[in-house]
Amino acid sequence: MELWEAINGRRSVRAFNDRPVERNVLERLLEAAIWAPSGGNAQTWQFVVVTEPGRIRSIKTVSPGLLGDPAAVIAVCQDLTKARAKGGSLGETFLAPVDAAMATENLLLAAYAEGLGTCVIASFHRGAVGTSSWPARGDRADAAHLRRLASRVSSRSLT
Amino acid sequence: MELWEAINGRRSVRAFNDRPVERNVLERLLEAAIWAPSGGNAQTWQFVVVTEPGRIRSIKTVSPGLLGDPAAVIAVCQDLTKARAKGGSLGETFLAPVDAAMATENLLLAAYAEGLGTCVIASFHRGAVGTSSWPARGDRADAAHLRRLASRVSSRSLT
Q1: B interface mutation test: which of A10, A13, A108, A109 has the most B CBs within 10 A?
Q2: Mutate which of B1, B4, B14, B31 to disrupt the A interface (most A C-beta within 10 Å)?
Q3: Contacts of A108 in chain B (CB under 8 A)
Q4: What separation in angstroms does the CA of A102 have from each of A98, A108, B52?
Q5: Overall domain count for chain B
Q6: B54 in a domain, yes or no?
Q7: Does A158 reside within a domain?
Q8: Predicted ipTM?
Q9: Residue A108, domain extent
Q10: Does any domain span residue B29?
Q11: Model-wide pTM > 0.80
Q12: If chain A, 159 residues long, is cut into consecutive pieces of 10 residues, what is the mean pLDDT of each piece?
C-alpha cells in the first residue's frame, strides 16, 4: 500500500468482526513498530499481544476505553526503569511515552495496510495497573505493573 | 512511495545539505502529521515551521541536540491548557506528548517519501523554555513558552 493511502485512510475503529488475526500478521505489525525512532535509540519498548477472547474480555474489565470486541489487543509498554537508566528523568517521563507513541503510529499504519481496523486506547483503570498516576509521575512501576497485568491475561507474548 | 519502504528506510539524519525545502513540501509534511489520531480527537497540536537560516541558528543555541544545519525546523507543540480542558490531567500530561509523537511519526515518514532526512530532537535547553521541568510536570506553560520562543525566531507559521 502507498504511504499516503495509509496515512489518509487510517481511522480509529471501534467495531470489529471476529475473524482472528494471524500470528504472522501480528508479527509484521510489531516489526513496523520497532522500525520507529527512539530517543538515544533506547528501544525500551515492549509489546504484549493478546488474542485469546477470554483474556481480551479480562483486559476489557480494566480498560473502559476499549470498545467493541477486537480479535487482538496489543499492549504497548515501556520498561521505565530501563528508560530512566538510559535517558534519566527525561527518558522516563517524556521519551518513554513519546517513543511508544511513534512506534504505535507505525503499527497503526501497517495494520491498515493489512486490512485491519485499530484504535489506540489510553484509558486503563488506574487501580488495575497498581498506581495512582498514569503514566509515570514519580512511580516508575507503571509499565511493569501493566506488563505484569497483561502477561497474566496474555496467551502469548511476541516481545 | 510504499508504506513499508518508508517504514524500513527512514533513518535519523544529522548531516544536511543546504537545499531549501519548498513551502508546498513543508505543508504536505504538516498534512501528514495532522492525519494522525489524537486522544478524544482533541488535535491540540500546533506546528511552527522555521526555514530562515539565521533563525534556525538561534534555535540551535537553545537546542543542544540539534546537530547539523537543517534547511527547516518544525517545532511540534501542544497547547497544554487546551489539552487539559479537553482531556483533564491525562490529556495534559500523557495524551499531549503522545498525540504529538504520533503526528511526528507520520511527518517523518512523509518527509522520507519526499527525499528529506529528519531527526527528532527532544533536548531543548530548559531555561530557554522557561521551566525547570520538561515536559509538563505541574507547569503547563511549557508548550506555550516553547511556542512563544519559536514564534520569536520563526519566519513563518503554518499552524
Answers
A1: A109
A2: B4
A3: 37, 102
A4: 6, 10, 28
A5: 1
A6: yes
A7: no
A8: 0.82
A9: 3-152
A10: yes
A11: yes
A12: 98 96 96 96 93 90 92 92 93 95 98 98 72 37 46 33
